[in-house]
Design a protein that fits this description.
mainly beta, 7% helix, single chain
Length: 167
């Protein structure tokens, strides 16, 4: 029998950092400018979804800026293997898969808000495998994170860095 894959999240669009990264912002991958600010989302992939997963939830935020909200999408069907690039953002017709729900980001629109800091910030991506669907009435990142942690079977994480002076 083959061993199940470890639950993991990744993005083929991330690149090696192309700017100096301060020691307190260390991360092995950077977000290209093409996915910054008001642009649309990079491709996100995952593997090893745990058995018994009923839905997935993704939270992307900026802990450097006190957890600033960049993108949250939940009630993703666990049969999905990722989110295609360009499905969400300021100037696209947001097209989350199936019945997935997007929340309002810190700039006030539903969907993806790219990294757009004044300096070099470190960003967090958390993908939750959940044992239930979450209440579609959830409206805040904080409420989503609490609900996701309550229903979590497993969590996969990745990070990226971005330097706003590159924009």
């Amino acid at each position: 029998s083959t061993e199940p894959l470890d639950f993991a999240i990744s993005s083929p669009d991330m690149v090696e950092p192309y700017f100096d990264v301060p020691a307190n912002r260390e991360c092995e991958q950077a977000l290209p400018v093409a996915f910054s600010c008001n642009n649309s989302n990079p491709e996100i992939r995952w593997e090893g979804v745990p058995e018994g997963t009923v839905s997935l939830a993704l939270i992307f935020d900026d802990p450097t800026a006190g957890g600033f909200d960049h993108w949250a999408i939940f009630n993703i069907d666990p049969s999905e293997t990722g989110l295609d690039a360009g499905i969400s953002g300021r100037d696209v017709n947001n097209n989350p898969p199936g019945d997935a729900v997007e929340l309002e980001n810190g700039f006030g629109w539903d969907g993806y808000l790219g990294s757009c800091p004044s300096g070099v910030n470190l960003y967090s991506w958390r993908l939750y495998a959940l044992d239930d669907e979450l209440d579609a009435g959830i409206t805040t990142y904080g409420a989503l994170q609490v609900a996701a942690e309550d229903a979590q079977i497993e969590r996969a994480e990745m990070c990226h860095v971005f330097d706003g002076s590159q924009i």
